[in-house]
Design brief:
It is a single chain. The chain is of the alpha+beta class. Helices cover 14% and strands 28% of the residues. The longest helix is centred in the middle third of the chain and has 15 residues.
Length: 176
């Protein structure tokens, strides 16, 4: 049985409430929207040391366990009708929303508290810049000229040098 957290940011469906997590009431567990996940929802647990993101993609359930120091910082992003504080990761699908509000005072106070809580920098981001994960680099020429793995384990055979044959010579044998 899983541990259930009493404090959190779980919002009732259709309530129109904004997401407001308190950094001083950690650990906290809540649900957030995820366009690529099955059902469009991912479950997030935030602790002082780590963040666990649970979601299912194409029927495969996964839990990604991330340390806080793997995140880049706390960013303020503009949404459709409000501002949001986001715990930013290099992979945008692992970024975690912390606060969604239209009150600028509450946003500044929350930004400062979350930044101090996790000892992460405050990042200024613009909403029109879309970041995508870096493409995977492919190594073309490095492996192309190498021997196959099977052949690397064994030594290549060498031709034995011809043995010298002496004909017509007297053999000297040492005897006691």
């Amino acid at each position: 049985m899983r541990r259930q957290f009493g404090v959190g940011g779980v919002q009732p469906a259709g309530s129109g409430c904004s997401l407001q997590l308190d950094p001083h009431s950690l650990p906290v567990s809540f649900e957030a929207r995820d366009g690529r996940a099955d059902g469009g929802i991912r479950h997030i647990e935030i602790n002082r040391e780590r963040v666990v993101v649970r979601r299912a993609v194409s029927g495969i359930r996964m839990a990604v366990n991330l340390r806080i120091n793997e995140f880049l910082g706390i960013a303020c992003r503009a949404t459709d009708d409000a501002q949001a504080l986001v715990l930013v990761h290099r992979d945008p699908s692992l970024s975690v929303p912390l606060l969604v509000t239209s009150d600028s005072v509450q946003l500044e106070r929350g930004w400062q508290m979350w930044s101090e809580m996790f000892a992460l920098p405050q990042i200024e981001e613009e909403s029109d810049v879309v970041r995508e994960p870096a493409t995977r680099r492919r190594r073309h020429n490095v492996i192309k000229c190498r021997r196959p793995k099977f052949l690397v384990r064994r030594k290549a055979g060498r031709a034995q040098p011809e043995t010298s044959v002496y004909r017509g010579e007297r053999e000297i044998i040492a005897r006691n």
